[in-house]
Amino acid sequence: MILGPILRFLGADPQENTWRVSCLIVIGGADAPPPLTWSIGKGKKTKVEGVEIATHRDRRVITYAIEAQRGDEPRAVDYRLGAGRGAPGSSFKIPARGERPRSAFASCCGFSSLKAMKTVNDKYERWRDLLTVHAAAPYHLLILGGDQVYADPLWESIRGLEEWNEQSPLIANVLPMKPELAAEIDDFFFDLYLHRWAQPDYAAALASVPTIMMWDDHDIFDGWGSYPPLRQSSPVFQGIFAVARRWFRTFQLHLGEGGSPELLVPERGLTYAYRIDDIAILALDLRSERRQEHIMSPESWRAAFSWLEGQHGLSHLMVVSSIPVVFPDLTRLQDLLGRIPGEQELEDDLRDHWYSRAHQGERLRLIHRLLDHSRDRRARVTLLSGDVHVPGLGLIESTRPGDGLITISQLISSALVHPPPPASVVYALDKIMSERGEFDRGITASMQSLPGTRRRLICARNWMSIEPDDATSWPSRRRLWVHWRIEGETEPYTTVIAPLDPQ
Q: Which terminus of the chain has fewer Cβ atoms in its 10 Å neighbourhood, N or C?
């Protein structure tokens, strides 16, 4: 076996009380896919045959479907690939019937450059911390909010791209993608997943917690979707995107070339959603259709909100937005950065955020729709984001007529592996966060101090857990406890998200 096993969450069936998981491996082309055998405790063993979803040269990508029954108590699902004591495998936990899942959230699981990598002594320390906590109190879901791999080295490692990049824009933007260059790019992305996801601590997490993943720019390359139109639509850029998209679908979504019922608009983007009892997770694809003038097409927004309108009885909606919806206006930071010596990590991201003037209307429509959903369905809404390489807590408040007071929390956890920006940049960001911004009449947003501190951002790597309350009475049992686990800190920073009272 070349890579794996890698688990992905495929949904929970309320009628059958099942927890559906996919297991992915990569094997050599001449190897027969081993059968997967799984069981709950010492119960009956179930054998599953693999399905080939992709090939690359002499390697094959195989997936297996596991449907485990939820019981009155949480259960452990043990699985093995092949026969014998040495057969690879692991186990994962599923929640009891009606129990809310314990989830971990992280983003930015790699390095944007060799320079960034050299600033970190222990690259996977946060992964080991996550695994330690998981071993003591297992997580049912691992939500990864973007940049699961960093593809930026392709510009230095593929000579054909270096040569293309040296051309004048007038020539480079119209040059066709040569077949031999396309093949090199295909090799690069496939091998990138094999190398990055084989790192022991990363691999251990992917094998023991079913994942929900959504990509961001570095899964393609830095700034994808925010380049000038002619560059963005150039044959080479589009060729890179097509390859990155194929392997994202394969490795992160466990999908072949066909469609999938979970993708809301499969012909346009990769937005998808899951319902787990009274909780829903909506993962927005902010990269497939991204352009300087918009982030998602009107068709994709309609599909996302149409799905949401069909969800009745929700008490909590979690929306994965790889880039924070609530964050400082980075155009103001640009002036401050000009007075700070040296290259700054966040400068490249200034045009890539929701605060870009072209995206502000789109963001406002998103906020209005989420506030409307919270008010009309009496459901709590929480945004989960990464990207910015610092943890943070944002708050949207609405006092629109008829709303009373509606709030949406923005939870930011970034980065798990990538180093934080320079302390001077984080300090500058914190200074411009003290003001409450106005989205629209009656709608404001602000960055809050992290619990127990006066800091709105912390200059350290981190990950976050989202854990249900263990109380049995209403409304305590509907609370979610959020813990930011910060490198170098012995205790987490904790906040609570309370449910809305039904009316």
A: C
Q: Are 145 and 216 in contact (CB under 8 A)?
A: yes
DSSP letter for each residue of 59-87: EEEEEEEEEEEP-SS-EEEEEEESSSTT-
CA of residue 489 relative to chain centroid, distance = 24
In angstroms, rounded to a whole number, what is the distance separating the alpha carbons of residues 449 and 439?
20
CB burial string 197-224: b at 16+ within 10 A, e below: bebebbbbbbbbbbbbbbbbbbbbbbbb
What parts of the chain have a pLDDT lower than 50? 339-345, 347
Please count the other Cβ atoms lying within 10 Å of the Cβ belonging to residue 411.
Answer: 24
Determine the pLDDT at residue 474: 63
Task: For residues 284 and 318, give the distance between their C-alpha atoms in angstroms, rounded to a whole number.
Answer: 11
H or E stretch including 445? strand 443-448
Give residue 205's pLDDT.
97
What's the rounded Cα separation, in Å, for the pair 298 and 343? Answer: 37
Q: What is the pTM of this model?
A: 0.94
Any residues with CB less than 8 A from the CB of 214 and at least 6 apart, and which? Answer: 144, 145, 146, 270, 283, 284, 285, 320, 322
Q: State the angle between helix axes of 200-208 and 125-136 in degrees (0 to 180), rounded to the nearest 10.
A: 30
Task: Record the tokens describing residue 454, joined without a space.
Answer: 């006066």
CATH superfamily of 1-99: Purple acid phosphatase-like, N-terminal (2.60.40.380)
Spell out the domain ranges in the chain. 1-99
481 and 499 Cβ atoms separated by less than 8 Å = no
What tokens appear for 222 in the block?
A: 């830095």
The chain-wide mean pLDDT, for the chain, equals 90
93's CB contacts (< 8 A; 6+ apart) are 74, 75, 76, 77, 138, 139, 140
Euclidean distance between CA atoms 399 and 440, whole angstroms = 11
Say if CB 459 and CB 423 are below 8 A apart.
yes
Asked if 414 and 430 count as a contact pair (C-beta separation under 8 A), the reply is no
Is there a contact between 274 and 281 (Cβ–Cβ < 8 Å)? yes
Neighbours of 330 (CB within 10 A): 21
Contact 423, 455 (CB under 8 A): no
What pLDDT does 341 receive? Answer: 43
- Phi and psi angles of residue 426, each rounded to the nearest 5 degrees, phi first: -65, -40
> What is the C-alpha radius of gyration for the chain, rounded to an integer number of angstroms?
22
Nearest CA to 274 out of 14, 2, 7 is that of 14
- If one counts every other C-beta atom within 10 angstroms of the C-beta of residue 326, the result is 26
| Contact partners, residue 304, CB within 8 Å, separation at least 6 | 264, 271, 273, 282, 284, 296
